[in-house]
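G., the chain you wanted modeled:
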Amino acid sequence: MSKILVVDDHEEIRDALAAILDEEGHDVLHAENGLIGLERAVNDSPDVILLDIAMPRMDGLEVLRKLKSDPVTESIAVIMVTAQGDRHAMVRAVQLGTRDYITKPWETGEVEMCVNWALKAKARAEAAPPITDARSA
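Predicted structure as tokens:
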């Protein structure tokens, strides 16, 4: 069972995502803002984070920047889930290291597909042999 952290300031969105992910057999954690989401990411080591962009106290792009700059959380797959179809926000999220981007309202099966893809990529990365420097061999 994979651990998924859902960070969104709207309870109904958190609950809707949790219902989808619970049905897929995932353990779902919740955070109602970016500060709590960042804390939960550090303390709970989720496999994937579904992260809203527009939130009070700390927006999702700032959370993503902090996650990717911390060695403890940099390898966690982050999927942005937002009502903002703003191209600038999408480009910025990609530059900061998001794995994927889902726009609300999402299509049936879209959340499951993105999360499963992120989990498969994580499993492949963990199974890959370490990269060695050919010059030192």
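Helices lie at 11-23, 34-44, 60-69, 87-96, 110-127.

Shout if anything looks off.
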